[in-house]
């Protein structure tokens, strides 16, 4: 997204929908197809389609439980992540 004000508005809106910012214009959240559509509809109200792009990745809960995580589990800061050692 090229405009910082639009990027900030977009971030606040997607975070209010339970999404977590991964990069400047990339967000990830738990949910299904309905959540994905809701996020994209929200993005379309803010972005300039000629210059901006927003990526909203919605991950089903069963995928989140199988993710390898270092730190806090996405969308659930009170739950401890599985500890994984990769050699």
Describe the protein's architecture and organization:
The protein has 87 residues and is an alpha+beta fold. It has a domain at 4-62: Alpha-Beta Plaits (2-Layer Sandwich). The chain is built from three helices and five strands; from the N terminus they run αββαβαββ. It has helices at 4-16, 33-46, 61-66; strands at 20-23, 26-30, 55-59, 72-73, 76-80. Strands 1-2-3 form a three-stranded mixed beta sheet. It has a two-stranded antiparallel sheet with strand order 4-5. Helix 1 packs antiparallel against helix 2 (33-46). It is globular and about 35 Å long. The chain starts with a helix and ends in a 7-residue tail after the last strand. The mean pLDDT is 78.
Quick synopsis:
The protein has helices at residues 4-16, 33-46, 61-66; strands spanning 20-23, 26-30, 55-59, 72-73, 76-80.
| Number of helical elements | 3
CATH architecture of the domain at 4-62: 2-Layer Sandwich
Q: What order do the helices and strands follow?
A: HEEHEHEE
Q: Tell me the distance between the termini.
A: 38 Å
Helix content: 25-40%
Strand order of the largest sheet: 1-2-3
Instruction: Give the number of DSSP strands.
Output: 5
Largest sheet, if any? 3 strands, mixed
Q: Mean pLDDT across all residues, rounded?
A: 78
Do you know the CATH topology of the domain at 4-62? Alpha-Beta Plaits
Residue ranges: pLDDT <50 for 5 or more in a row? none
Per CATH, the class of the domain at 4-62 reads: Alpha Beta
What characteristic shape results from the CA principal axes?
globular
């Amino acid at each position: 997204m090229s405009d910082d004000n639009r990027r900030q508005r977009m971030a606040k809106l997607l975070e209010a929908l339970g999404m977590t910012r991964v990069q400047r214009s990339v967000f990830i959240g738990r949910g299904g197809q309905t959540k994905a559509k809701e996020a994209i509809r929200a993005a379309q109200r803010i972005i300039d389609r000629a210059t901006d792009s927003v990526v909203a990745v919605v991950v089903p809960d069963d995928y989140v439980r199988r993710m390898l995580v270092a730190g806090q589990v996405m969308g659930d800061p009170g739950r401890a992540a599985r500890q994984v050692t990769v050699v």
